[in-house]
Design brief:
rod-shaped; about 85% helix; mainly alpha
Amino acid sequence: MNDIFEILKYLLPMLVLGGIFYMLIEKFFAEETARRRLELQLKDREILTPQKLQAYERMALFLERIRPTNLVRRVALPDSADAYEYSLVNAIQEEFDYNLSQQLYVDPETWKIIFSAKNTTQNFVRQCRQSISNPDDVSAFQAEIIRKSLDGAAATDAAMLKLQSDVHAQF
């Protein structure tokens, strides 16, 4: 019996010290894991933030390029109104296709608004063509696009405001 007490006399302090040591090591590893996780998040943010910002910049440029008043200045006037309408709608689609990969970095709701602005602008071009009295007059078609663009808000305006609010909210 004395031997058992003698063993317990040494074993009990060792168990207490072992438990304390285990708790300290466990706490150290938990803090180290959290610190490494934070470092990885910061490194990911360092890499991803410039890419996201570049995507927002490219989408802002896209919206400016498809604004009807800017679009008619960039697309040369061909001989026929059919060719001009096709060129304008095609220019919008090509711009969109070129920037399609940016949807990975842009907020999904914002992307829907951008997509809608693209479609609305293409429809706007078609409606301008149908609203002129002589559907074959290219100059009248171009003038109608400019006139209607100046009369109302462009479809790209709402998308641009959404882009700006996203950038201000994130950065």
